[in-house]
């Protein structure tokens, strides 16, 4: 049956201008009709071979038919890693299901040398520490309990993850320290005083542009524009990443890669944000304020910000 399909397709494209890739409309209709004629894998194999032989790669692109491709590098998909200050809910399942679909489709296509799908739990930070204190247990005990629930939930849905990572894993600590040391060796980390807004719920420092007036528990306060969660004003010494040095380089990258972020209006939004000027990024917290975190290499008085 596959051979018959190839013969038919060879016949209908025989009069095409293969050098210019011009295809008459009647032929286009025939090609469209032939694509779903057989089981997907079989159809892809024969269409790829036939179209490649005739030099009609343009047919594949124009009609979204499968292209003959050499194996590409690793396809990597990850979910957010989920905070362990609360149990898993339908939002976590939804996010992980989207990633699972991407990973399964990438494996099915068979054009990647390796497909890696990662999910897991983010187990450090002030929010986790406060939740554990409220329960009267150590943060690691809370992390063990909630992380196990996330893993059991994802296994129940049969998500095909390759790695369920925990930020308390030994290899995660090693990787964080390696990255920190590399950045420090390149002169991209410096110690300075940070003064600004901090959102405990989001575990994030927030710029003045990212803060507005709002309400929390019936009381007026400052909140983040993005999540509408309350922020506090802090002043503390810590380590800063020299993000301000990368503005022009980032704009150049996004300009040359217009489809790297989707939807497109989000990429335009990010470019506009960068053009307003980037500030150095605080990447540590004093251990006097938060004890539950990965230690900064060579400085026991600070922990790495999550």
UniProtKB/TrEMBL annotation:
Instruction: Return one GO MF term.
Output: methionine-tRNA ligase activity
Q: Which UniProt keywords apply?
A: Aminoacyl-tRNA synthetase, ATP-binding, Ligase, Nucleotide-binding, Protein biosynthesis
EC no. given is 6.1.1.10
Gene Ontology BP annotations? methionyl-tRNA aminoacylation
Cross-referenced InterPro entries: Met-tRNA_synth_2 (IPR023457), Methionyl/Leucyl_tRNA_Synth (IPR015413), MetRS_core (IPR033911), Rossmann-like_a/b/a_fold (IPR014729)
Query: Key word Cell membrane present in the record?
Result: no
Methionyl/Leucyl tRNA synthetase domain location? 75-305
Could you say which protein family the record assigns here?
A: Belongs to the class-I aminoacyl-tRNA synthetase family.
Protein name, UniProt field: methionine--tRNA ligase
């Amino acid at each position: 049956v596959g051979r018959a399909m190839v013969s038919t397709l060879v016949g209908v494209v025989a009069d095409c201008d293969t050098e210019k890739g011009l295809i008459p409309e009647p032929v286009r209709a025939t090609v469209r009709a032939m694509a779903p004629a057989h089981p997907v894998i079989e159809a892809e194999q024969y269409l790829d071979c036939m179209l490649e032989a005739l030099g009609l790669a343009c047919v594949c692109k124009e009609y979204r038919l499968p292209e003959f491709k050499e194996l590409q590098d690793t396809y990597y998909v990850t979910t957010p890693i989920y905070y362990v200050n609360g149990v898993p809910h339908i939002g976590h399942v939804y996010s992980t299901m989207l990633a699972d679909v991407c990973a399964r489709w990438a494996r099915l296509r068979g054009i990647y040398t390796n497909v890696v799908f990662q999910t897991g739990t983010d187990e450090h930070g002030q929010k986790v520490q406060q939740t554990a204190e409220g329960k009267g247990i150590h943060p690691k005990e809370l992390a063990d309990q909630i992380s196990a629930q996330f893993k059991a939930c994802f296994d129940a849905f049969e998500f095909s993850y390759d790695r369920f990572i925990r930020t308390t894993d030994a290899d995660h600590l090693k990787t964080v320290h390696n990255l920190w040391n590399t950045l420090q060796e390149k002169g991209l980390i410096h110690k300075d005083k940070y003064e600004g807004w901090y959102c405990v719920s989001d575990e994030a420092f927030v710029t003045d542009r990212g803060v507005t007036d709002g309400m929390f528990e019936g009381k007026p306060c400052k909140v983040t524009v993005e999540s509408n969660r309350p922020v506090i004003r802090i002043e503390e010494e810590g380590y800063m990443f020299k993000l301000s040095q990368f503005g022009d380089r980032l704009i150049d990258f996004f300009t040359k890669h217009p489809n790297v972020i989707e939807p497109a209006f989000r990429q335009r939004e990010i470019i506009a944000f960068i053009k307003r000027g980037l500030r150095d990024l605080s990447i540590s917290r004093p251990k006097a304020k938060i004890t539950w975190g990965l230690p900064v290499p060579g400085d026991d008085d600070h922990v790495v910000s999550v």
